[in-house]
Q: What sequence folds into this?
């Protein structure tokens, strides 16, 4: 914990990964843990961890990087994942920056600072869990938690050269995760290594009665899965994942990784995910629709900021939301409200749900014959700060390789697989069957 804060004080002025630091309390806890250290301490005992700021932490400010929650200084409860980490005795170092309400791919939509990519501070760290990835890459914390609705753990992990896993939908409780798109959101671990990642996942999984979508499944020992090597592994490589639009250096790095898998005794074949080209359109319709409903609770009445204008009740709602939400969040709410309005529902929302089913079936077919699917995490490496922020459509389009995984509810990991000529990290994405995180880790660890 000491080392963590020393590093934070060295680099945080530049990296800006945190919205809130928990220094006094973290140091107090660390001291207490030193005194209590026993023989049966968990592997995560005393480990400094950073938490994305859309995960509720009791007594520790939780803002979702939004002005509308700027004054939420003292949340009344812990998210289930935090309760689980408390049992392992990790130490929360602070709350990490993100795109407002997890909407974005660069962390530039934060209403606080712009987080910078530790590999080159002219570049974005990715998003929306940009703070979570940057803090790990900069050595500010060993571990962090992010959330992934449409790539927000894997893409920043890829941009920052760290390991990030989006678990199978339902494996990790969403209780206490501020909802963006409830049918897609999952919390997951971001770490330096695959092994660390497996240990952190182990600590946060399991059925939770507070989340009705939480699955009843048997939990394997993920660290055990790392003992198996890549021999006999059957890898599928979707041709759509290496098509034009994917940066040549990214493609080359992925092909190199596949060569390495061959040397390790795995085999790979080209397959097709024919409906993945519709994933971005379906994702933005569904995610925005769900967001428009979920974000209706921010009305200035129950919690969060209320306008200071002296207006009547209806205008109080309107002004509170107009002042509290940023541009991207408003764009999504309008898009979602439109897609759900009567007369348009069948044409947009219902159609997107059908596309979602087709995408899921594409994956199911491939998994009849293969253990994992491998491709790039993102078509590009990190963007320059400011490069894409005024062009949301191009930015959305870059979610083409991550969103299919959310729509199908599958687990996916991003592991580092080299650097571009500019010295920016490239990420390899490994996708598994539902609840087969063990296989995903096995494949990732063998490569790493
Ligand atoms: N780029 C995606 C979006 O803006 C990422 C969302 C996420 O996974 N939280 O919706």
A:
């Amino acid at each position: 914990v000491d080392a963590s804060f020393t590093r934070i004080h060295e680099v945080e002025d530049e990296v800006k990964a945190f919205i809130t630091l928990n220094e006094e309390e973290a140091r107090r806890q660390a001291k207490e843990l030193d005194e209590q250290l026993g023989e049966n301490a968990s592997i995560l005992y005393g480990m400094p961890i950073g938490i994305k700021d859309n995960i509720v932490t009791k007594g520790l400010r939780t803002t979702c990087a939004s002005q509308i929650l700027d004054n939420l200084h003292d949340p009344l409860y812990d998210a289930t994942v935090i309760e689980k980490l408390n049992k392992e005795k990790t130490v929360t170092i602070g709350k990490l920056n993100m795109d407002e309400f997890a909407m974005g791919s660069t962390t530039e939509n934060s209403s606080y600072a712009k987080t910078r990519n530790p590999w080159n501070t002219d570049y974005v760290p990715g998003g929306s869990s940009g703070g979570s990835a940057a803090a790990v890459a900069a050595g500010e914390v060993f571990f962090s938690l992010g959330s992934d609705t449409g790539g927000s753990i894997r893409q920043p992990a890829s941009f920052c050269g760290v390991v990030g896993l989006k678990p199978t939908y339902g494996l990790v409780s969403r209780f206490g995760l501020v909802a963006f798109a409830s049918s897609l959101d999952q919390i997951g671990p971001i770490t330096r290594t695959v092994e660390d990642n497996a240990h952190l996942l182990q600590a946060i999984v399991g059925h939770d009665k507070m989340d009705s979508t939480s699955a009843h499944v048997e939990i394997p020992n993920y660290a055990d899965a790392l003992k198996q090597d890549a021999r006999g592994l059957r890898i599928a490589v979707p041709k759509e994942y290496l098509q034009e639009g994917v940066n040549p250096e990214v493609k080359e790095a992925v092909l190199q990784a596949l060569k390495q898998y061959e040397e390790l005794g795995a085999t790979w074949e080209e397959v097709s995910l024919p409906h993945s080209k519709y994933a971005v359109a379906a994702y933005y319709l569904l995610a925005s629709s769900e967001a428009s409903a979920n974000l209706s609770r921010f009305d200035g009445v129950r919690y969060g900021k209320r306008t200071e204008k002296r207006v009547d009740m209806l205008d109080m709602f309107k002004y509170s939301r107009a002042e509290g939400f940023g541009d991207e969040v408003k764009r999504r709410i309008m898009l979602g409200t439109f897609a759900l309005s009567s007369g348009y529902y069948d044409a947009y929302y219902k159609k997107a749900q059908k596309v979602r089913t087709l995408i899921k079936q594409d994956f199911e077919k491939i998994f009849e014959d293969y253990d994992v699917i491998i491709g790039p995490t993102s078509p590009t490496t990190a963007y320059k700060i400011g490069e894409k922020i005024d062009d949301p459509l191009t930015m959305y389009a870059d979610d083409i390789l991550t969103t299919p995984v959310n729509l199908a509810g599958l687990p996916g990991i991003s592991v580092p697989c080299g650097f571009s000529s500019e010295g920016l990290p490239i990420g390899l994405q490994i996708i598994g069957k539902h609840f087969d995180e063990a296989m995903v880790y096995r494949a990732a660890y063998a490569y790493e």
